[in-house]
Amino acid sequence: MNLQIIILAAGQGKRMYSNIPKVLHPLAGKPMLVRVVETAQQLNPDAIHVIYGHGGEQLKNSLPDLPVHWVYQAEQLGTGHAVMQALPFIPPKTQVLVLSADVPLIQASTLSALIECSNPANSYQSVLTLLVAHLEDPCGLGRIIRDNQGEVSIIVEEKDANEQEKNIKEIYTGICCAISDDLEKWLPKLSNDNAQGEYYLTEIIALAVANKTSIRTLSAKDDAEIQGVNNRLQLQELERIWQTRKANELLQQGVTIADANRFDLRGDLVCGKDVSIDVNCVFRGKVILGDGCIIGPNCVLADVVLGAGCEIQANSVLEGCVIANDCMIGPFARLRSGTQLAANCKIGNFVETKKAIFDEGSKASHLSYLGDVVLGKEVNVGAGTITCNYDGVNKHKTIIEDGVFIGSDTQLVAPVTVGAHATIGAGSTIRKNVPPGELTLTESKQKTVYGWKRPVKKD
Q: Which residue spans adopt a coiled-coil conformation according to this UniProt entry (predicted)?
C-alpha cells in the first residue's frame, strides 16, 4: 500500500512568546519542522504534506527548498480539521501517517515499525494504529482509555479528562497511521463540543470503534522521541538530550570529548581516530576532523575540513575552510570563507584571513589581516601585516611568492606581487610590485623635537 505523510505545523505556539512560528525554532541548528521532514523522508513516502497556518507565508518563505507539498489551514480549528485540509490531495487506499512538527526527536525506526503494524490483512480491512507511551508524568497529554477487554475505546484530552482519567499513565503521542478512505469517512463527523472548541483528531477513535475498525497500538521505547515542544524550556531540554546523544555516539567511536554536557553539534561531524574536543565547542554545517586533531576550548567550526594532526587552539573561529595536515591555528584566530592552508602552516593569535591560500610551511603568527591573498611556500608574515584589498568598490589580490619575509607593521596595497625570497622592511607601505630576492622598504625619517613639552591639563 502506498504511503503519504501529513505533518501538522499550523499551531501558533503562544507559549514560545516569539514572532517566529514555533516550528521554525531550531533544534541542533535546524528548524524543528526540517528535522521532522528529514525523518519522514527516510520512510520513502509518495508525498509529504505540511499543514501550515500561523505565520503563513513566513513559514513557507523560510524553507523554500523543503521537498514538501504545502497545505494552508486558514483557521486553526484543531488537529482533525488540519488533517482534513490535506485529504483532497491523497488518493484512495493510501496509508496516511500523521506527524507533529513540534515532536522533533521522533525516530524513523519507530515510525517504520508503526507503519508495519498498520498494514491491513487485506485490502478490505480497516486499520487505525496509534503510537502510545507510558509516562510517569502524563500531564497535558491525551489519555488512552481501554475497555474491559483491553481494547482502545477512546482518547480523552487532558482538559476534558476527569480525575480518574488523569491518573492513567498511557498517553497518545499525537502520531497515528490510518487509511485515507477511513479518514474521508470519519473526519467530516468530528464535533468541536469540547473544552477547546476544536475538532480533535483523537475523536476518530470513537468513530473507528463504532465502525468496528481494528485499532492497534505501538508503544514508543524512548520517551524523549515522543516529547513535544510548547515552550523554550522544553525545546532546551530536547536540545540537551540530542546533544548528549550525539556526544555519546562520538565517544563510542573513540573521540575524546572533555564534557558531553558542553558539546554543541549543529550539523554533521565526522571524526578520524584520536580526535580530542575540549569544552564549549560549536560545530555547524559539515565538519570533518582528521586523525589526531585537537580542538581547544570555546572554538567554532562551520563547514570546515581539517587534515590529520591539526590543532585549533582556544577561542578560534573557522568558517568555510580547508586545512591540510599538521597546521596550528590560534588562539583567538579567525579564518573566514575561502581560506585554504597547505600542510605545516600556522595562523596565530588575532589573525584574520579571508580567501587566503597558504602553501606549505607559511605562517602568520600574530595580529594580521590577510584577505584575497595567495602565499607561496615558507612565507613569514610579521605581526601587524595588512593586505589592503578593498578600494571602496572592488576587491584586489595580493600575491606573495615562495620564501618571502614580511617585516612587522607592513601594509600591502593590492593589487601587488611580492617576488620570491624578497624581504620587506618593518613599517613599510608597499604600493608597487616587489622584485624577487631584494630588500624593499619605505623609509620615513626619525625626527627628535628637542625642548618639546607635553600639554598640561587645564583646570
A: none
Residue linked to cell 525554532: 25
Q: How many CB atoms lie within 10 A of CB 286?
A: 13
Distance, in Å, from the CA atom of 193 to the CA atom of 162, rounded to the nearest integer, reads 16
* Residue 17 assigned ligand-binding role: no
Residues 6+ apart with CB under 8 A from 366: 348, 349, 350, 351, 383, 384
pLDDT digits (tens, 9 = 90+) for 424-453: 999 999 999 999 999 999 988 889 999 999
Task: Report the C-alpha gap between 353 and 339 in whole angstroms.
Answer: 7
Q: Where are the domains of the chain?
A: 3-225, 238-440
- pLDDT bracket for residue 194 (50, 70, 90): confident
126 appears as a binding residue in the annotation: no
For residue 350, which amino acid is it?
Answer: F
Residue 79 assigned as binding residue = yes
Q: 56 is written with which cell numbers?
A: 503563513
Architecture of the 238-440 domain: 3 Solenoid (2.160)
Q: What is the pTM for the complete model shown? A: 0.89
- Residues 338, 147: Cα–Cα separation, whole Å: 65
Strand partners, 69: 49
> Does residue 75 have a pLDDT over 70?
yes
- DSSP code of residue 140: T
For the chain, the average pLDDT equals 95
Q: CATH assignment of 3-225, given 1.10.3430.10, 3.10.290.10, 3.90.550.10, 3.40.190.80?
A: 3.90.550.10
Count of residues making up the chain: 459
Cβ atoms 455, 437 nearer than 8 A: no
18 three-state secondary structure: coil
Q: Cell 541542533 appears where?
A: 28
10 assigned binding-site residue: yes
> Would you state the pLDDT for residue 197?
85
Specify the DSSP element, H or E, that contains 139.
Answer: none
Instruction: Work out whether strand 380-381 and strand 405-406 pair parallel, antiparallel, or are unpaired.
Output: parallel
**What does each C-alpha distance from 93 to 4, 87, 97 come to in angstroms?**
11, 12, 13
Instruction: Give the whole-angstrom CA distance, residue 39 versus residue 384.
Output: 49
**What is the set of active-site residues?**
366
With residue 236 as reference, give the H or E element that holds it. Answer: helix 232-252
The 10s digit of each residue's pLDDT in 222-240 is 999 999 999 999 999 999 9
> Is 58 labelled a binding residue?
no
Taking the C-alpha atoms of residue 324 and residue 359, their distance in angstroms, rounded to an integer, is 10
365 a known binding residue? no
pLDDT over 70 (residue 122): no
